[in-house]
Amino acid sequence: MTTLTRLWPVSQARYSTKTKTRPALSFQQFIQRGQVISMYRKYMRLTKQIPDKPSRRELREWIRGDFDRYRTESDPRRVDVLLAQASRQYKNMESGMFPML
């Protein structure tokens, strides 16, 4: 006679009803968040043009590190400055580095 004497253990912490809540974003922060995500994606798409896989991986890690460094920035003016810098740097990378590939 075979019976299931023990089911898979279910961790209560995994299914906890307590969740971490973040403070609500203002409209400006919401828009800036979308702009940051869009810029990050543009950078990642740009790296697809690099044929050498180790170089591509290194550049992606560098990009990720840069974005992570400013992840907690909450001052809207500072975020605008960082987005402007990222945009300029992206244009430089797009026009200066990759035409020779």
UniProtKB/TrEMBL annotation:
A Pfam family hit: Complex1_LYR
Key words of the record: Mitochondrion, Transit peptide
GO CC terms, sorted: mitochondrion
Record-annotated Complex 1 LYR protein domain positions: 35-89
InterPro entries: Complex1_LYR_dom (IPR008011), Complex1_LYR_LYRM2 (IPR045293)
Subcellular localization(s) per the UniProt record: Mitochondrion
Family affiliation: Belongs to the complex I LYR family.
Job of this protein: Involved in efficient integration of the N-module into mitochondrial respiratory chain complex I.
Name listed for the protein in its UniProt record: LYR motif-containing protein 2
Native source species: Coemansia aciculifera
